[in-house]
Amino acid sequence: MAASAVPGYSPGFKKPPATLRLKRKRLRRNEPAAAPLPCGAAPPPPSAPARRNPFSSLDNAPRAAGTPQPRERGRRPPPPASGSPSAAPFWQVGPSPVPSSPRHEFPADWSLKTRLLFMSSQPFTWAEHLKAQEEAQGFAQHCRATETNLPEHIQQSLVYWLHPSLPWLQLFPRIGADRKIVGKATPWSQDEALQQVLMSDWSVSFTSLYNLLKAKLCPYFYVCTYQFTVLFRAAGLAGSDIITAVVSPTTRGLREAMRSEGIEFSLPLVEESRTRKQKNSEVNLETEVANTPSDDDDESFSWLEEMGVQDKVKKPDTISIKLRKEKHEVQVDHRPESLALVKGTNTFTLLNFLINCKSLVAVAGPQAGLPPTLLSPVAFRGGTMQTLKARSINAKARVHSAYEDIFSLEIAGPVLPHSLHALTMLLQAAQRGAFSAVLYTHEPTAVFNADLDAETVCKDLAACGLHPKTLHQLSQRPTLGKSSIRFLEMKDYAYTWKS
């Protein structure tokens, strides 16, 4: 049978590889003998481009938005202003960023990032090939919490502190990490004595971090377990005037265990939802439970007696009320709405609870016996200094019958909030106020951006190890809700973003 006679056969259909070859032929047919490069420049040599000083034409203060940028000899000008027709850069990934009006600062993002991808029309090679002296100076400045003027060293922005340190295991993220850990050497999994040693060492490090936080020498830290994550924040951060801890996601079993240990906490997102429904006059289970009196509060039904219908209305009994309440609690388990907020001295009780909590460590599977991961922006007892992995990539893309340079810088996590802000401050100067970034969030931590109805306060955290501008950003009330920043762009030294 002829191919054309086969039902549904289209003579114009080609397999994907054939289609790609056809497109390549069409491109070659339309191209001149030698495809022109920008500004008549010669094709790039196979070796990496010479390392440049990104701060050569910068003073210590960034220019205001709209300030004309000097055009270096042999370099093309920065991307056009956001109001021009060609404002969207060719390297932009994802949908258009928001808000519509650019800002000189982006909101604090308390979620942990697994990866950052920065893109710019200027090379990033200066960020990858560091001299030994630059690397050493970056470490020293970080450990001494030294505030530096430009040029800053990228090494200082990549440092974080970790416990435990097991180089052959990836210790972040921990939620859903079984697949990456399975098959790796875990000698403690069947050795109870070794597990006790690891947990004892971990407890010392955890307590050290909390003491630093209380003394305002550590701004915040994370406790990453195989089931949930805890973020401890010092007084003065995220708009709170006292120490806070947020736990997410939680389960009814975990919440009941916390209550039994005397830990006072709230479920702010559940309460927010309940309040919103009450304002909209919607009937919901929480309103019913909250407004239902106890068995010994018969006065609330006196109005039924006055109407003579008290025998026709069935009062809810205590057992049914409890069952409905438990059903509602289970519905938020493992969801962002299950976030628990602990404040003030209750955070110390939470510390002791976590140290003694049997379910904190997996008893089976690849993570069995492995203590939770502690992540901190500053040094602590038992902590190991780690650096984020930075890698620059240079390429060329065909745009409008010409080739354009694409430069990108990949940062592999865990990226803490202070590192994200420090890197943007560095790139703001080095990339001449024009770059974009795609941010990959560890989803269970996105809810840490929820506004907890705190008031913006000022606390003396100057010795906590953060740059003053970063500290100012992290002290503001969160505005991202249960989401996080996915795309960030700077043009003319002003930010837009999308969450």
Automatic annotation (TrEMBL):
Keywords: Developmental protein, Nucleus
Location of this chain's protein in the cell: Nucleus
Name of the protein: Downstream neighbor of SON
Range of residues in the leader sequence: none
GO CC terms in record: nucleus
Comp. bias (Polar residues): 281-293
Chief place of localization: nucleus
One Gene Ontology biological process: nuclear DNA replication
Keyword Nucleus: yes
Family: Belongs to the DONSON family.
Source organism, top-level taxon: Eukaryota
